[in-house]
Design brief:
Length: 401
C-alpha cells in the first residue's frame, strides 16, 4: 500500500492508551490504488503553478486551501440570504447574447449551428435585468458568471462571478447603503470584528465609509496637479503624455472626462486602502448611467474601492431612450475608431426603454474580488477552483504521461 491509496478497514473500534480512536483491523480491502505519489504532506504543495493546475492535489495536501473554498461557499450563501431578506427575487438571464452589452469589455464569440449566427458569451447581465424592470419586477438580482476576453492577472480571470442587483424607484445612493450594510455585516459575521488584514494592510470596515467625487479624490491624492490643469483638456493631456501611461495618452482628442479617469486609475486608485466610494463619474465613460440634472457632464454613479481595487460599481439607471440612443451612437463612433471594448448598439434594448422603464438603480459586485479581500487571498486564482491557465506544451504532457 502507498500513501494516497483508499482502503476499507473492518473490525471493532477501541481507544488506545493515549485516548485515540482506533480500529482493530480484521479485514482490509484496497478500494482505489494511487498510481502517482501525492506531494509530501508536511511541506504541502508549494509550486504555485501546480496548485492552480492540479487543484485537487492542492486541496488534498493544503487544508487551508479547502477552507478558503468552504468560506467562499458560505459567503455566497450569505449574500443570497441577505438579498432574499431584503425582498429581492433571484433570476437567471441568458449567458449567450446576440449583442454584447452592459459593460465595457471585449467578448468571447461562439457560433450557434442551428441558427447559423454568431453569439457572444455575456460580459454582463445588465441589459436583460433592466428589461425585467420594464416588465414589472421591482427588486431583482442575479449571481452568476460573466465572460470577458481580456488579460489574466492576480485580479482578473476571463470567467468570473458577478452579482448584479436592480431596484425600481431608487437612486445610486440606495446602493451606497446596501453595499455598506452587506459587506460590513459579512465582516462581522465571519470575523466578529470591523477590521481585517489583507496582505500588508489593516482594513477597517467600520461605518460610515469614506466618500468623495472623482475630482475631489484627484485633488486629494495628486496635489502636484493644479486645478487649472485638471479643468483643461489640453493641459491635462500634456501632463498625461509627459507621464507616459495608457493608450489614451496617444490620442490628443481624448475627452477631459476620460483623461481625468486615466489620472485616477494610475495615481489615485492604488493609494486607496479602506473602503471608499468614488462618485460623480464623467458621462463619457458611463454610457448607461443617468446624468445629474444640474451637472449634465457627470453621472449619478459610484465605484467602491478597497486596497486599490474596484469591488463594486453602481449608478442611477438611464431610462431615457433618446439619451440612451445618443450614448450608444457615441459608443459606435469609438468602435469605428478601433475601440474593441466600446458598447454595441442594442436596438431591442432601446425598444424596451421606449415602452417605459421606471426610475431605477443598479449595482454590480465582483464576488471573486470580495472573497479575495475577505479571505486574505493574494490572487483571484486562490478563490476560483479551476482558474483559466495557459495550456501546457504538448511535449510536456507526453513526458509526464
Amino acid at each position: 500500500m502507498d500513501i494516497g491509496d483508499f482502503i476499507g478497514v473492518e473490525g471493532p473500534c477501541f481507544k488506545t492508551r493515549t485516548g485515540d480512536l482506533a480500529i482493530k483491523a480484521q479485514k482490509i480491502v484496497l478500494m482505489s490504488k494511487s498510481l502517482r505519489p501525492l506531494p509530501e504532506k508536511f511541506h504541502g504543495l508549494t509550486d504555485v503553478e501546480a496548485r492552480y493546475r492540479q487543484r485537487y492535489l492542492d486541496m488534498v495536501v493544503n487544508p487551508e486551501s479547502r477552507e478558503v473554498f468552504k468560506k467562499r461557499s458560505l459567503m455566497v450563501n450569505y449574500i443570497r440570504s441577505f438579498l432574499n431578506e431584503k425582498g429581492f427575487l433571484e433570476v437567471e438571464t441568458p449567458m449567450m447574447h446576440p449583442i454584447p452589452g452592459g459593460a465595457t469589455a471585449k467578448p468571447f464569440i461562439t457560433h450557434h449551428n442551428a441558427l447559423g449566427v454568431d453569439l457572444y458569451m455575456r460580459i454582463a447581465p445588465e441589459l436583460y435585468l433592466k428589461r425585467l424592470l420594464v416588465g414589472g419586477f421591482q427588486k431583482v438580482f442575479e449571481l452568476n458568471r460573466n465572460f470577458r476576453n481580456e488579460g489574466i492577472s492576480t485580479f482578473h480571470n476571463p470567467e468570473f462571478t458577478m452579482m448584479e442587483v436592480y431596484v425600481a424607484y431608487a437612486t445610486y445612493e440606495y446602493h451606497i447603503d446596501l453595499v455598506e450594510e452587506l459587506v460590513s455585516s459579512m465582516v462581522q459575521h465571519f470575523y466578529q470584528s470591523d477590521t481585517i488584514t489583507y496582505q500588508e494592510h489593516e482594513v477597517s470596515f467600520k461605518r460610515p465609509w469614506a466618500k468623495m467625487t472623482v475630482h475631489e479624490s484627484i485633488t486629494k491624492f495628486c496635489p502636484h496637479i493644479s486645478e487649472q490643469t485638471l479643468s483643461s483638456q489640453k493641459e491635462l493631456y500634456k501632463y498625461i503624455k509627459s507621464k507616459h501611461y495608457g493608450e489614451l495618452a496617444k490620442n490628443p482628442e481624448t475627452s477631459l472626462g476620460e483623461l481625468l479617469m486615466l489620472v485616477f486609475d494610475e495615481e489615485v486608485q492604488p493609494k486607496i486602502v479602506n473602503p471608499t466610494y468614488i462618485t460623480h463619474y464623467p458621462v463619457e465613460i458611463s454610457p448607461l448611467a443617468r446624468r445629474f440634472d444640474d451637472m449634465p457632464e457627470l453621472t449619478e454613479r459610484f465605484e467602491l474601492f478597497i486596497c486599490g481595487k474596484e469591488v463594486a460599481n453602481a449608478f442611477t439607471e438611464l431610462n431615457d431612450p433618446i439619451d440612451q440612443k445618443g450614448r450608444f451612437m457615441e459608443q459606435l463612433k469609438k468602435k469605428e475608431k478601433g475601440d474593441e471594448e466600446a458598447h454595441h448598439f442594442d436596438e431591442d434594448f432601446i425598444t424596451a426603454l421606449e415602452h417605459g422603464m421606471p426610475p431605477a438603480a443598479g449595482l454590480g459586485i465582483g464576488v471573486d474580488r470580495l472573497v479575495m479581500l475577505l479571505t486574505n487571498s493574494a490572487s483571484i486564482r486562490d478563490v476560483i477552483l479551476f482558474p483559466v491557465l495557459r495550456p501546457k506544451k504538448q511535449e510536456e504532457n507526453i513526458n509526464e504521461n
